[in-house]
Each structure stands twice: as structure tokens, then as C-alpha cells.
């Protein structure tokens, strides 16, 4: 029940404190005596929308405080008394509090709805509020404890359902990722890559792209080393014969002759290896086209999945 109403600088009221006794309290007076102002001040405390016009003329702000005795009403709020207060300033700033603790205007209205029921031509009546009917029914049936238990179980169920939905989504995400990875693996395995294949392809491609030039230059080198009239191997052989004639005169000449033997062998081996290398060069255009396509495919998949074939 309402125990006390304190009003400061509200409408025409300077400073007023009204105490209420248990049971029926009645305000009487002529029209304009201020009865409705008291009701308006209480409505203001309970969160009714107002403008700065409710502030007493010449004052910067107004304040109304209402003290309720909860023990007398059988409330289960866990406290015997609650004090609601509200202030509003001319700049529009508003403060609401319950037992000295700041609360929002919405929370103040909710508390007000649970504490006071206005009956009047233009005021709401809680009994006509469909949302409150379930509270009346549960209270009449003594179902408060069962309702609280059901509420707790429903909250637990909703939380579990939420977690289950999240887990199912996580499973779907994993499956999507797995499908994507399997697709990537299939794409990689489809190329049947070999270790260091990209470097080998690059080398062979460069060789085939320049095959004619290589064969021409290599053939010239073979001519100089082995096949020409004045080939290096022939000149080395001629020099070797001349040094054999000088060998009887000095061991140094003999030693130089042996060195020419080694040079002769090296020139011969280089010429033969060069011939073999030139013979292995394939001038097949289809092979070159294949290497280019294969190299492009490997470059594409390297850009997509990693920087190397490995």
C-alpha cells in the first residue's frame, strides 16, 4: 500500500508530504483545490509521460517520491518497503530511482504497474489488461511455485535448444568445409604432380623454345672441338706428337705431353657429350605445347593452394 507521497516543486506545489493510513483514504475539496495534482504527482512517480510544464514556475526541476509498504500487501518482492522517486529538469533530463538505486523509466513503469491500479474515466485498469489475466489465474490457483518451476525448465529448454541449433550449424559448417577441402584435394590429385616437376618443365620448355639456336650453336662447338679440319682435338694431337720429339731432352717436355693427353681426353669427352645432348633435343611442336599447358596448370594451382609443388 502507499504509505507516503513527497512532492517538491510540482505544478503549484512547493513542498508537500502526505501520509496515508491503512484502509480507505479520501481527498475532498472544491474544484481547483488540487486533488488531481496529488493524483498527477503519483502518476508522475510511477512513470507517466510528462513535459517540463509540470515543474513549478520559477524552479529548475521537480521531484516526487512515493513510499510503498509491501509487507501489508503480501508482496513476494523480498523487501518490506520500496521507495520510488523521479525527477525532471527544465532541460529535459530525468532521473528515476528505486530505493535510491538508479533505474530506467521503463523499469519504473513496470514497478508502478505492479504497485498501483488506477481506476478512472481516462486511466487504465489492470483488470482490463489481457496480459495480467494469467497472473490473476495463477495466483488464484496457488500455482506461483509451479509457474516458477515451469519457467525455469522452459528457459533451460530454450537454452539447450539454442545450443543444439548452434551445434547443428557448426556440424553443417564443418561438412561444408570438408566438402570444399575434398574438392581441393581432388583438384590437386588430378594433376598427378611430381616432385620438382615445375622446375623441370621450366627447364625443358626453355630448351625447346630455343632448340634451333641451341642445335646450331652446339653444332658449331662440335665442329670446333672435334669435326672441323682445324678442330681442337686435332691440334692437341699434333702438339702431342711434337712434344714427344722433345721429351728425350727434358722431363718437363714429357710432363707437358702427358698433360696434353688429358686435354685430348677431355676435348673428346666434351664433344661426345655435346653430340649426345644435341641428339636428345626434340623439335616436336606438340611436346612444347604440352609443356606450356602443363606448366600453366601447375602455376595456376600453386597460386591457388601454395607457392610450391611440394
How many H/I helical runs?
9
N- and C-termini, Cα separation? 82 Å
Oligomeric status: single chain
Strand tally: 6
Q: Tell me the radius of gyration.
A: 52 Å
Number of domains: 3
Percent range of helical residues: 55-70%
Relevant CATH superfamily of the largest domain: P-loop containing nucleotide triphosphate hydrolases
Keywords:
rod-shaped; six-stranded antiparallel beta sheet; 6 strands; alpha+beta; Rossmann fold
Description:
The chain has 310 residues and is of the alpha+beta class. It has 3 domains: 125 residues, P-loop containing nucleotide triphosphate hydrolases (Rossmann fold); 37 residues; 109 residues. It has a 6-stranded antiparallel β-sheet, with helices on one face. A hairpin with a 4-residue loop joins β4 and β5. α5 packs antiparallel against α9 and α6 packs antiparallel against α8. The model has no long low-confidence stretch (mean pLDDT 89).
